[in-house]
Amino acid sequence: MTTDLNATALAVFIFFFVLVTVMGFVASRWRKPKTLDHLDEWGLGGRSFGTWITWFLVGGDFYTAYTVIAVPALVYTVGAYGFFALPYTIVVYPFVFMVMPVLWKRASDFGYVTAADVVHGQYGSRGLELAVAATGVIATMPYIALQLVGMTAALKALGLHGEVPLAIAFIVLALYTYSAGLRAPALIAFVKDIMIYIVVIAAVALIPSKLGGYANVFAAADAAFQAKGSGSLLLLPNQYVAYATLALGSALAAFMYPHTLTGIFASKSGNTIRKNAVLLPAYTLLLGLLALLGYMGHAAGLKLESANDVVPALFQTLFPSWFAGFAFAAIAIGALVPAAVMSIGASNLFTRNFWKAYVNPQVTHAGEAKVAKATSLVVKVGALLVILFLPTQFALDLQLLGGIWILQTLPALIFGLYTNWFRAPGLLAGWFVGFFGGTYLVWNAGWKPLQPIAMGETAFTVYIGLLALALNIIVAVVVNVLTPAKVTARA
Q1: What percent of the chain has pLDDT over 90?
Q2: Could you list the residue ranges that cross the membrane (predicted)?
Q3: Contact 166, 148 (CB under 8 A)
Q4: What is the per-residue pLDDT for 393?
Q5: How many domains are contained in the chain?
Q6: Burial label, 67 (beta-carbon count in 10 A; 0-12, 13-18, 19+)
Q7: What are phi and psi of 212, to 5 degrees?
Q8: Hey, which of 208, 229, 357, 425 has its CA 20 to 30 A from 488?
Q9: Does any domain span residue 463?
Q10: Radius of gyration over every alpha carbon of the chain, rounded to an integer in angstroms
């Protein structure tokens, strides 16, 4: 991949980046409320987003710039195993359809803004509330940093190197998020998703014709995997369990993250969420098409410094400069939307479940909004520092842990929607064992998310997140049985 400055591509990139920047600042006047000095308005868009806005917003923060870069890169590297993202994004939507409207109603009825609010309302435990809130913030930080990995790949392809272009982009993001709150990424998501659809459809329609057709694409990828002795076009038998558990665990974790829950809480009704659960699989089709770009990288004979460069290199090599600039703008904007929602979700958690809980319980609505705005700036700066001063691999390792960590909040958040049998001490003990046990297993496995298991002559690997969740639930049940109920759980 060449990294020389391309004036035409850069001009197109700048045009669209300026366009979404203007939209970000205009968003404060879009569906303008009486005041933005309220967390419901700044952090949740007034809880008024309908089906289409929610579809673009949730799709925008679920299918991120890092997804556009990482999924094809994984397929380029390992082949069929990298397609686990497809079943995971199918399995997740029945879960969303059944569970998220119930969670939305609980939050709407009691004015909850975060998952930790819901947990505290259900169990009355500050300890459990803090555990859920801290897990959400910790798991989100590397996720924001990884959006910068996607943006960095696009900037490098344009010939923009160093920290300055990345810092400028995130300063702009920080300013319009501070100004407009959730309305900014919601409005920008319309442009971002349309651009991504155009880019992907053009790629899967035109690139194979330049490479001799799909038969040649698959043949070239197969030959490349055989030549290096790893990777395959089809799953190998010893990958079946790992593939299935990665898909299931990732699906259960996906809507536990603060940014996806922010999109859910911002919806105007439970029916809006159900409609989105039906419509959102359209993004899975998009993801499947994107994944194929990994195979196309082999057919194009690309010489890459990093697998993360496969998508930018394809556009740079096979398309005219103006369209390459358009594609790089789509990838960069695809980083801004989820990064904004993630920072808002994390700042909501800090404001409601730390600042209000421990520092200033009497804080006003305007005070909450002020703290959340300031925290959103700190979160973005923190993510930027991670990517600038720590190796990218460190952020990748933390993101692997992020999925395992956030999965441990599921029992506390979801079980209480359906039963009052569980109590705070058991759930807190379960969270502790799952969180730290999962962390240890990942560290012991050399920062890999899979754990080998042998049962007699049968050996397979399992996603550590599911193992930790199973242990979490077992501990919660045992502690709940062994400890007497002292206080009746609150609805």
Answers
A1: 48
A2: 6-28, 49-75, 81-104, 164-182, 194-220, 240-257, 278-302, 322-350, 371-392, 398-418, 425-443, 463-482
A3: yes
A4: 59
A5: 1
A6: buried
A7: 90, 15
A8: 357
A9: no
A10: 22
Q: Say if 192 falls within a structural domain.
A: yes
- Residue 156: give the domain boundaries: 7-392
Which pLDDT band, with edges at 50, 70 and 90, does 131 fall under? very high
Distance from chain centroid for Cα 423: 30
Kindly state the tokens that stand for 72: 């094809």
* pLDDT for res 491: 45
Per the DSSP assignment, residues forming a β-bridge with 451 are: 462
- Considering the domain boundaries, does residue 130 fall inside one? yes
> Is 407 part of a structural domain of the chain?
no
Task: Give me the amino acid identity at 324.
Answer: A
**Structural tokens at position 93:** 């939507």
CATH number at residue 272: 1.20.1730.10
